[in-house]
């Protein structure tokens, strides 16, 4: 287990960042929040680039910062790599020469430059000038450069922000591959919940310089559905159901992928990549894309029908009169969230413990992989 203990504050003229949190960095940990929430500040502090913090940062029982003991390790001695939004490469050099520059910083290298080129799928671009690369290729070089220093922790600061959808999907798959092959803890900052939902094991949520939630990725995303009740001035995300389900069939012969939900199935458009049976797929469904029926739909063009029971009906903003409610339904042991009008709730006379059917289109099941 990789543990990062954070207990510090940082004051600017118009902004105060405060955190007292212990993070389990096994796998990939996401950091989510709007611009100005403190995401990049957190990474810079961990990397040793913020000089005015008060408090302590401890990584795997090794003290990086402790202002009461006047301890602050230099960034180059922390064995932590940070990849920024912009790749920050030497554009007059080739890919290989950029990586050689990074390799010099690792005294007892266990990974060769060739190994890293292959791992990050840059071997065919090794002698290309960085200036001629696409944004996605440059970010792969930045990732390769960070790995070459063989860090104990990798920090990613919105690495996909300048990329198109196809490049984002490819780099996300690469980040997961790197983490798994090298068993490298990663702290991944993004203002895109879609990205984080696809790759992260745990999620830390920041708002206005403070931690407002932390935990398992799916559970924490579900908790976000209710946070608008406590943060009326800041809408963090669309209400949604976050899932990780095994693939029963990548293509059922009718252009649909089949996911297993215990004894029920969920259908979505066939995936473009190569997937195998029982491989888990990360996906999500917006609460506004699901409807509720009191009986099983018949003769419908909507292909997904799930039976379940209502466990909660709550106002979208607790204590504030609204024209909509968020209904929580348990289907085969999984929470599903449905956003409907109060008119629909009253029309169907919905109540807790009531058996219902959920329906949603195949296209409503979203994933970053297609």
Task: Explain what this protein looks like in three dimensions.
There is one protein chain. With 370 residues, the protein is of the alpha+beta class. The protein folds into 2 domains: 225 residues, P-loop containing nucleotide triphosphate hydrolases (Rossmann fold); 125 residues, OB fold (Dihydrolipoamide Acetyltransferase, E2P). Helices cover 22% and strands 35% of the residues. The strands form 4 sheets. A 6-stranded mixed beta sheet has the order 7-8-9-3-10-11, sandwiched between helices. It has a 5-stranded antiparallel beta sheet with strand order 2-1-4-5-6, with helices on one face. Strands 16-20-17-18-19 form a 5-stranded antiparallel beta sheet. Helix 2 runs parallel beside helix 4 and helix 4 packs parallel to helix 5. The longest helix is centred in the middle third of the chain and has 18 residues. It starts with a strand and ends in a 10-residue tail after the last strand.
- Globally, the shape reads globular
Sheet with the most strands, sense and barrel status:
6 strands, mixed
The CATH topology of the largest domain is given as Rossmann fold
The radius of gyration is 23 Å
Percent of residues in helices: 10-25%
Strand order of the largest sheet: 7-8-9-3-10-11
The domain count comes to 2
Extended strand count: 20
What would you call the structural class?
alpha+beta
> pLDDT average, as an integer?
90
CATH superfamily of the largest domain: P-loop containing nucleotide triphosphate hydrolases
């Amino acid at each position: 287990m990789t543990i990062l203990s954070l207990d510090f504050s940082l004051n600017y003229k118009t902004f105060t960042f405060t955190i007292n949190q212990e993070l389990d960095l096994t796998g990939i940990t996401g950091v989510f929040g709007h611009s100005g929430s403190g995401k990049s500040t957190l990474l810079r502090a961990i990397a040793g680039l913020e000089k005015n913090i008060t408090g302590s940062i401890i990584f795997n029982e090794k003290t990086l910062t402790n202002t009461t003991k006047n301890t602050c390790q230099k960034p180059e001695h922390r064995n932590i790599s940070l990849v920024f939004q912009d790749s920050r490469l030497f554009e007059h050099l080739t890919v290989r020469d950029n990586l050689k520059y990074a390799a010099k910083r690792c005294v007892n290298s266990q990974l060769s430059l060739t190994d890293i080129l292959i791992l990050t799928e840059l071997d065919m671009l090794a002698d290309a000038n960085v200036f001629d690369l696409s944004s996605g290729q440059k970010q792969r070089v930045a990732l390769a450069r960070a790995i070459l220093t063989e860090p104990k922790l990798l920090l990613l600061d919105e690495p996909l922000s300048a990329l198109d959808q196809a490049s984002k999907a490819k780099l996300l798959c690469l980040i997961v591959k790197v983490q798994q092959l090298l068993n490298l803890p990663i702290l991944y900052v993004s203002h895109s919940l879609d990205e984080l939902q696809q790759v992260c094991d745990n999620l830390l949520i920041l708002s206005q310089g403070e931690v407002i939630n932390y935990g398992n990725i799916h559970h924490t995303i579900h908790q976000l559905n209710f946070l608008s009740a406590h943060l009326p001035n800041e809408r963090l995300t669309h209400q949604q159901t976050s899932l990780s389900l095994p693939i029963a069939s990548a293509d059922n012969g009718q252009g649909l992928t089949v996911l297993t939900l215990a004894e029920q199935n969920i259908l979505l458009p066939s995936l473009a990549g190569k997937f195998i049976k029982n491989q888990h797929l990360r996906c999500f469904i917006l609460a506004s894309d699901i409807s509720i029926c009191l009986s099983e739909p018949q003769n419908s063009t909507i292909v997904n029908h799930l039976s379940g029971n209502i466990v909660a009906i709550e106002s979208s903003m607790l204590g504030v009169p609204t024209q909509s409610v968020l209904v929580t339904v348990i289907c085969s042991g999984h929470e599903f969230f449905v956003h409907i009008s109060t008119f629909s709730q009253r029309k169907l006379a919905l109540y807790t413990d009531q058996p219902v059917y959920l329906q949603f289109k195949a296209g409503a099941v979203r994933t970053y992989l297609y």
